[in-house]
Design brief:
There is one protein chain. The chain has a single domain, classed as NAD(P)-binding Rossmann-like Domain (Rossmann fold, 3-Layer(aba) Sandwich). Helix content is 36%, strand content 11%. A 4-stranded parallel sheet has the order 1-2-3-4, with helices on both faces. Helix 1 packs parallel to helix 2.
């Protein structure tokens, strides 16, 4: 095994006051514990074979920015970002790198119909695009490109990092009704 892309889909929402221990255990067990122990098993094989490798965890922009009802999901994704930092140090000298890719809005169409807002629902897409500097939602190949870079020789000096692939969403975003100024418009005299 040369490459592991750890990408288990586990998304669930709960208001902070409604989080149960069962909900916590299920989400943390699936999306943090599962990532850790799968990576550990793969790393042990990589070390045994002595030729290095690349561990890539799929995180989320939810690890950086809060949304309503995403307490546990955000904690899990932030935990993945932190996990690769320690892995980078613990695996020093093995030739194994550990990184995360943190997608923003990706129209993956893999989620159930009940989670329409995450499946490309036009209302959601329209409102989300206003906050994405690239003015488009991401697609799976955008995430694949980041993973390919990290797994290739081009990314071999990148270690313990989280690469955000979000079209500029975390760069601050702008309201959807924002209209950029045309070149030459505005009042340059106001700066004098």
């Amino acid at each position: 095994i040369d490459i592991l892309v750890n990408n288990a889909v586990a998304s669930a929402d709960a208001h902070f006051t409604k989080i149960t221990e069962e909900f916590w255990d299920k989400l943390v067990g699936h999306a943090l514990k599962g990532y850790l122990f799968l990576a550990q098993g793969v790393v042990n094989r990589m070390v045994e074979h002595g030729h290095g490798g690349s561990i890539i965890n799929i995180s989320s922009v939810h690890s950086y920015r809060a949304w309503p009802h995403d307490t546990v999901y955000g904690i899990v994704k932030a935990g993945l970002n932190r996990m690769v930092m320690t892995m980078a140090h613990d695996l020093a000298g093995t030739g194994i790198t550990a990184n995360c890719v943190a997608p923003g809005y990706i129209d993956s169409r893999v989620l159930p119909e009940t989670e329409e807002m995450d499946r490309g629902n036009d209302d959601y897409v329209g409102s989300a695009l206003g906050f994405i500097a690239s003015r488009r939602g991401g697609v799976p190949r955008d995430i694949a490109g980041a993973c390919l870079f990290l797994a290739s020789e081009l990314g071999e000096y990148v270690n313990g990092q989280t690469i955000t692939v979000d079209g500029g969403f975390l760069a601050g975003g702008v309201p959807q009704d924002y209209k950029p100024l045309e070149p030459g418009s505005g009042d340059p005299g106001a700066m004098e």
